[in-house]
């Protein structure tokens, strides 16, 4: 019984050590050289997204979300602005520039309560996942850049003929 307990504890310790080493590899990506990217223009800020390494990165996408907190009513709102993917000349890399005057679009429902709420109003852009390069986004001052990682489903589904 004591022998079985020692074997079980040994297996748990080995598994934990392997998991910790594997996790450490994923989170210790070398910092990419950001000096090759242009400085932010007047009125803009540079945001950088560093992604952890994944197996089969072609099965992932990154949704870049640029927006800001605004006071809004019960309607649906979205930021008016646009993303432009630009080439980093001489390097073969790209970066994103988001331009907006900070205006938003909205549905025109009559709101029963006239209460304004703080809400993050945004635009999004979907791009490929690549942990070897940073995702660099230039956005106007006062905006925030967030992101989501999307993973491809392994389940295929059939379309219906109608």
From TrEMBL:
The keyword Signal applies. SUPFAM superfamilies: Ecotin, trypsin inhibitor (SSF49772). Keywords: Signal. The keyword Signal applies. GO terms for molecular function: serine-type endopeptidase inhibitor activity. InterPro entries: Ecotin_sf, Prot_inh_ecotin. Residues 1-20 form the signal peptide. Belongs to the protease inhibitor I11 (ecotin) family. PANTHER family: ECOTIN (PTHR35890:SF3), PTHR35890. This is Ecotin.
